[in-house]
Design goal:
The complex is a heterotrimer of chains A (about 375), B (about 325) and C (about 575).
Chain A (H helix, E strand, L loop, with lengths): L51 E2 L3 H30 L14 H33 L2 E2 L1 E4 L7 H18 L5 H21 L22 E3 L17 E6 L10 H7 L1 E5 L11 H5 L5 E5 L11 E3 L4 E3 L6 E3 L5 E4 L8 E2 L1 E3 L5 E3 L19
Antiparallel strand pairs in A: 1-2, 4-5, 5-6, 6-7, 7-12, 8-9, 9-10, 10-11, 13-14
Helix pairs in contact in A: 1-2
Chain B lengths: L1 H6 L5 H20 L22 H11 L1 H4 L8 H4 L14 H9 L21 H15 L22 H20 L3 H11 L1 H4 L6 E2 L5 E2 L7 H10 L23 H16 L14 H24 L7
Antiparallel strand pairs in B: 1-2
Helix pairs in contact in B: 2-13, 3-7, 6-7, 6-11, 9-12, 11-12
Chain C lengths: L10 H14 L2 H8 L2 E2 L7 H20 L8 E3 L11 E3 H11 L4 H28 L8 H23 L4 H16 L4 H9 L8 H31 L13 E6 H26 L5 H4 L18 H9 L6 E3 L2 E3 L1 H29 L15 H20 L2 H8 L3 H40 L1 E8 L5 E6 L3 H13 L16 H4 L1 H14 L34 H10 L11
Antiparallel strand pairs in C: 1-4, 2-3, 5-6, 7-8
Helix pairs in contact in C: 3-5, 3-10, 4-5, 5-6, 5-10, 6-7, 6-9, 6-13, 7-8, 12-13, 12-14, 14-16, 16-17
The chains are: A alpha+beta (about 375), B mainly alpha (about 325), C mainly alpha (about 575).
Subcellular location (chain C): Cell membrane
Catalytic activity (chain C): a quinol + 2 Fe(III)-[cytochrome c](out) = a quinone + 2 Fe(II)-[cytochrome c](out) + 2 H(+)(out)
Cofactor (chain C): heme
């Protein structure tokens, strides 16, 4: 931990003879701290007199008082911390009173305030101590000489090579090579062991739960939605597929892939990217896009009914909802996948198949058809 | 001044100036940031009865304040038609009373500059006048969603009352209707609906956010429950529509039914009214950007100031 | 204070001391280390802020682990916090609510933990800037600089993981973006994401996995790196600014015991106090207001903590123009370059700089004296350019907030930053370098003529002059230290025989020569400048300096007053 290649590391540079009283097994009473001999000093401090600028006595007396005041403040604030802690005890029914946000705010301010004051006062007291009582030191100490003297270096290198030779590591290649060989599988073992941290991706990212006939429900209420619920132009709602298992709903993984934005617009607004197939996927101006941005996967949901832009609030990729969700600004590369829609015979909106392309952030084989 | 002059060459002078400047910005920011939205301004005649509307008054007010942009016939005036006058406005056919109530009661209409998004302002008309205009537009240009009168909307204003007692009574009435309205509802559904359909523009705190081309989603915390409801019904500006059931008033249907809207509004109101448990400075609920700013300006500069104190040279010993 | 006897150590201490020394033979080493000298300057305390906030992070973090449950199991909340009762959420989020609203001091500790994290990374940044601008990374301290870069990198990763644990709305979105960047990696992206998340996003294992990284693996590595950083610092001793008695061979300052220990201790309490004070009064990361994470929700103004801001900003402003598809396989450069490339530039550049600079200048000497930033104008300019580049990316990470707050169109802010990150650093470089050179010239003026005293004197001829006084020996020392620190590398054209050296003929040699020239060309030479000799010196080296000597006309005045001011020179110290 310390520099031991020089022998003059001590601050005062005085070559005092160091009589090692301590360290001997019998180490008596006058050890460690008291055992210094500094014969040539008149000055009683630990460092040389010219490196020690002592404060005048009156400064020290004043400093002691100021520091004491700070420490007293710290003590009182510390007591205040305990008082504030215990004054927010749970009520008779053992319910926490801090569950009320207003009380929590007060408790936080009182506990934190007293603690901060206490800490600050200790810091201030110690600063006053350092600045008014302790001398101002300007102790000089040499930096290490770099590098080691050539003699030490060559001695080390010679020693090292002799030892290496003697060990046989350099002379016995068979042993050396088999040892290295033995290390290889062990080195790889931790990587292999990580294999089961997750399944292989396969094509899971390319398909979702959506299939023909699956009902679309409003997210949050789980209510099936009819085309007439989106009869007003400019309508929008965030939606999910209906869960097959009504009790548990969809897993978050499935939600993350299947969530859509249902938008109702004037069919006359559809742009040139809306080919016949894409138009067939809409119903009376109702169109569904994946809500997951193709950039890095935030829900892109800021739909502006006037411009038909869908903006992602994370990195501001902007898609044109009236034009096949083409990227019109920002870092995203692929359009948002479109979900084919139709209406079942009861008037409910249902999917007519899976998304037009893989959902979510673009991955390397996202556009490769299988 | 002399004191400053004498010390301006002090080795610490530069640091002191920097610290003061940083502290100034830091403290200034925390005080400026939580500035509240414009006061609500509405006529106080609480839940005034829509049956008593005065269509003649509505027509008069419409011709006075609205027709210059929207046309006498309510068909609107396009930008080209308006020419240099700059007075153009959209077609009001079929917008309905709720849209009028929203635009006028939030002070967005009448507007002097149709090219820019309107910020919220004190309303120009009182409750009765707004009802009259809304009824006139609804009757004259074809109906749309009506004013959701059962949703609390008009917070009483002291100036509109003769006596303190009347004012207090009206305030109490408003409060109780507000509490009644936001008392029920489904927390989970309200939160989900808000988070999936609203928060992406209006932000988790309701504080609003940026849209494209200089538009923005406004702060919800200055809106009354009724205005929020109306905004969902009518989709003002770039905002999409979240319609009620078509079948019946208050029916379970539509994109977000009226009871679901109630849950959603309850979520907004509860969130807005909740004190900031974490501290008296809530940083206007801006979140991480404001936190980083305070960490650098207040946190780091205070700690560095302490470091300067600890290590400062003392003249006596130099 | 007055008696000349060192006081006897208390018996208990002697006992403990001897007990230890009997076993470790530590007395000599102990004394030597307690005598360790630390130069005295506030800017040398910046690294300590990082150390102390790291300690606070460990303490508050341990407290939080007592209740935090890193599980993604789905529950319906039925706890004390009324507003969210009945809401479905993960157990991680619910246990964070428990810490906030059921555990007294829990909210305070959470906020301390978060504020301390912000302060930790911020102090790393200012500490690194101090080291960079003073050249303290130079030989022999390059390895400690590398360790510092590693600490900085790990601190950011640690912060990102910690931010993700409570499973509130922004935290989950941070993870989502992280996963999106992973997916963009060609070939291995989907595998990396599936293995890390145990399947698709969000899966059910990512929070427990991040938890073990956040509370165990990364803190342990950080702790080891910090210990190594500190031991190297201890071994090599701290750099110091030039001054009287302070040389490359000798450090002057405050000894560890008693003085520095007390100062450092006090500073720990100050750091702690500021962090706790912020936590008491300024709300941070109110996860109970954000609501639980769902992958389908998003909020406007979504931001990471500040230290991730530059990555967020680079993702925002980088266009999709360079995205390519090779044989149907997508390579989304718009994600890869800002998500990974910029990070590589930042950390790679920081790590490589000490070696690049040493290669350019050919300076292989050890340095213990810190450069004054003005004396290395190119480095300082590059640093300013780097700060500008980083700062603009960081600002770009909040462009929606800026757009909303200052009412600028959103796309306009994007374009401002897209252009700004090219123009801004260049301007910052030029301006900073000019300022440095100007300061060098002023330094030479001061060295030659003394400093402006502010006193106006009237000469017998009626002329008014400002009396220049001689600078203090300390100032002279500081100013004179310049030349030895920045060796002027001459372009190695030819040796004495007119033969080009082989090294300078190679392509790299030529590049290096050009870089060396660029690195040192504009430095103001102090060669031949004698302190306080201004009226004697109209030397040739003035010529290359450009229009700096607007004061030349009054130099006679300087000379005269300097001469007549000899008496006061001791008193008029300008430290």
């Amino acid at each position: 931990m310390t520099d031991n290649n020089t022998d003059n590391g001590n601050g005062n540079g005085s070559e005092e003879p160091r009589e090692r009283v301590i360290g001997t097994p019998t180490g008596g009473g006058d050890a460690l701290v008291a055992g210094k001999e500094e014969p040539h000093r008149k000055h009683e401090g630990p460092y040389l007199a010219e490196e020690t600028h002592a404060r005048p006595e009156e400064t020290q007396i004043r400093g002691e008082k100021i520091a004491a005041v700070w420490f007293l403040i710290a003590f009182l604030a510390g007591v205040g911390f305990f008082v504030s802690y215990f004054s927010f005890a749970p009520n008779a029914a053992n319910e926490p009173v801090i569950a009320d946000p207003a009380t929590a705010q007060l408790a936080n301010a009182l506990m934190g305030g007293t603690l901060a004051l206490s800490l600050f006062a200790i810091g201030a007291g110690m600063t006053v101590w350092a600045r008014q009582i302790l001398p101002h030191y300007e102790v000089a100490s040499p930096y290490d000489e770099l590098p080691s003297p050539p003699k030490e270096k060559s001695s080390f290198s010679e020693f090292f090579m002799r030892s290496a030779n003697e060990s046989g590591f350099t002379k016995r290649p068979l042993m050396r090579r088999t040892l290295l060989l033995a290390m290889a599988p062990l080195g790889l073992a931790p990587i292999v062991l990580l294999r089961d941290t997750g399944p292989a991706p396969r094509d899971t990212l390319k398909s979702t739960l959506w299939e023909d006939g699956l009902h679309i429900v409003v997210e949050g209420t789980g209510r099936r939605i009819k085309a007439e619920d989106l009869s007003e132009t400019g309508g929008m709602i965030s939606a999910l597929p209906e869960a097959h298992d009504g009790d548990h709903g969809l897993s978050l993984d499935d939600q993350a892939k299947t969530v859509i934005l249902l938008i109702k617009m004037d069919p006359d607004d559809f742009g040139p990217q809306m080919n016949q197939q894409r138009l067939d996927w809409t119903h009376e101006g109702i169109i569904a896009y994946s809500k997951i941005c193709t950039h890095v996967g935030c829900p892109a949901a800021l739909y502006e009914r006037t411009t038909h832009r869908i903006l992602c609030p994370c990195h501001q990729s902007t898609f044109d909802a009236s034009n096949g969700a083409e990227v019109v600004f920002g870092p995203a590369h692929r359009p948002l996948p479109q979900l084919p829609l139709r209406v079942d015979n009861e008037g409910y909106l249902v999917a007519a198949g899976d998304f037009s392309s893989p959902v979510g952030p673009t991955f390397w084989d996202a556009e490769v058809k299988n | 001044m002399k004191w400053i002059t004498a010390r301006r060459r002090h080795p610490l002078a530069g640091y002191v100036v920097v610290i003061i400047a940083l502290a100034f910005f830091g403290v200034g920011y925390t005080f400026v940031a939580p500035a509240t939205s414009p006061a609500q301004a509405q006529n106080a005649s609480a839940e005034s009865d829509l049956a008593n509307v005065d269509l003649a008054n509505g027509r008069e007010l419409f011709n006075q304040s609205c027709a210059s942009c929207h046309g006498q016939d309510g068909k609107g005036i396009t930008k080209t038609e308006a020419g240099n006058a700059g007075a153009w406005g959209p077609d009001l056919t079929g917008v309905g009373a709720a849209a009028v109530d929203f635009q006028v009661s939030t002070g967005r209409m009448p507007s002097a500059n149709p090219d820019a998004q309107m910020p919220r302002k004190p309303a120009m008309y009182g409750r009765d006048d707004i009802n009259d205009i809304a009824a006139y537009v609804d009757a004259q240009f074809g109906g749309g969603p009506g004013i959701p009168v059962n949703v609390p909307g008009d917070k009483p204003k002291r100036a509109d009352f003769e006596s303190e007692a009347d004012y207090e009574e009206a305030t109490e009435l408003y409060q109780s209707s507000l509490e009644q309205y936001t008392g029920g509802g489904d927390t989970e559904a309200g939160m989900k609906l808000y988070m999936t359909n609203c928060a992406h523009c209006h932000s988790w705190s309701g504080g609003g956010g940026a849209l494209t081309d200089g538009r923005w989603a406004p702060d919800l915390n200055s809106a009354t429950p009724r205005q929020i409801y109306e905004a969902m019904l009518t989709g003002p500006g770039a905002m999409p529509v979240f319609q009620d059931s078509n079948d019946e008033v208050g029916g379970e249907g539509g994109a977000i039914s009226s009871s679901e809207k109630q849950s959603l509004i309850k979520f907004i109101v509860d969130l807005e009214n909740e004190p900031n448990a974490g501290g008296y400075f809530g940083l206007n609920r801006v979140g991480q950007v404001a936190e980083g700013f305070i960490g650098w300006t207040v946190g780091i500069s205070l700690i560095v100031a302490c470091a300067i104190w600890i290590t400062a040279k003392q003249r006596a010993h130099d | 204070m007055s008696d000349n006897q060192a006081p006897q150590a208390p018996k208990a201490m002697r006992g403990v001391g001897n007990f230890i020394d009997d076993r470790f033979h530590l007395a000599k080493m102990g004394e030597k280390n307690l005598r360790k000298v630390f130069p005295n300057h506030w800017s040398f305390m910046l690294g300590e802020i990082a150390l102390y906030s790291f300690i606070i992070l460990l303490l508050s973090g341990v407290f939080l682990t007592l209740w935090f449950n890193p599980s993604m199991g789905h529950i319906v909340y039925d706890g004390s916090y009324e507003r969210l009762r009945g809401v479905g959420m993960s157990e991680a989020y619910a246990s964070t609510l428990h810490i906030t609203f059921d555990v007294r001091g829990g909210l305070l500790m959470r906020q301390i933990h978060h504020w301390a994290a912000l302060i930790f990374v911020a102090s790393l940044v200012i500490h690194m800037l101090r080291v960079f601008f003073t050249g303290a990374f130079r030989k022999p301290r390059e390895i400690n600089w590398l360790i510092g870069v590693a600490i900085f990198t790990l601190a950011i990763v640690e912060g990102l993981f910690g931010y993700s644990l409570p499973d509130d709305l922004p935290s989950g979105m941070g993870l989502r973006i992280f996963q999106g960047v992973l997916l963009a990696l060609p070939l291995i992206g989907t595998y990396a994401s599936f293995y890390l998340f145990g399947g698709e996003f969000p899966g059910e294992v990512i929070i427990p996995r991040l938890y073990s990284l956040h509370i165990l693996v990364i803190p342990a590595i950080l702790l080891a790196l910090i210990a190594a950083h500190f031991m190297i610092l201890w071994h090599q001793k701290h750099t110091q600014y030039p001054g009287t008695g302070r040389t490359e061979k000798k450090v002057v300052g405050t000894p560890m015991f008693p003085a520095f220990a007390i100062k450092a201790g006090g500073f720990f309490f100050f750091t702690f106090a500021v962090i706790v004070g912020l936590s008491a009064f300024v709300q941070i990361n109110p996860i109970h207001l954000f609501g639980p994470f769902t992958p389908t929700s998003i909020t406007a103004g979504l931001q990471p903590d500040w230290y991730m801001g530059f990555l967020e900003g680079s993702l925002r402003i980088f266009p999709n123009w360079f995205d390519i598809t090779i044989a149907g396989y997508a390579i989304p450069m718009g994600v890869l370059i800002p998500g990974l490339g910029f990070m590589g530039i930042l950390f790679g550049g920081l790590a490589a700089w000490p070696f690049v600079e040493a290669w350019i200048t050919g300076d292989k000497r050890p340095h213990n004296l810190a450069d004054r930033p003005r004396n290395a104008p190119v480095r300082t300019g590059l640093g300013a350019a780097g700060i500008t580049f980083y700062g603009l990316l960081w600002l770009a990470g909040s462009n929606d907030i800026l757009s909303h707050t200052f009412e600028i169109s959103l796309y306009t802010t994007t374009w401002i930053f897209r252009i700004g990150i090219f123009v801004g650093p260049v301007i910052a470089y030029i301006i900073t370098k000019r300022i440095c050179l100007g300061m060098q010239r002023r330094d030479r003026e001061t060295l030659e003529h003394g400093y402006e005293s502010g006193t106006i004197a009237q000469l017998p001829g009626g002329e008014f002059v400002e009396v220049h006084k001689e600078s203090s020996p300390e100032t002279v020392h500081v100013l004179e230290s310049k030349e030895s620190m920045t060796p002027r590398i001459e372009t190695p054209a030819a040796n004495a025989n007119g033969v080009e050296s082989p090294a300078s003929r190679s392509l790299m040699g030529k590049l290096r020569a050009r870089l060396a020239d660029w690195y040192t060309r504009d430095n103001i030479s102090f060669v031949g400048v004698e302190p306080h000799s201004g009226h004697h010196l109209h030397h040739g080296s003035h010529n290359g300096d450009g229009p700096t000597h607007g004061v030349q006309g009054s130099e006679n005045g300087h000379g005269g007053s300097t001469a007549s001011d000899k008496v006061t020179q001791g008193a008029g110290q300008n430290k």
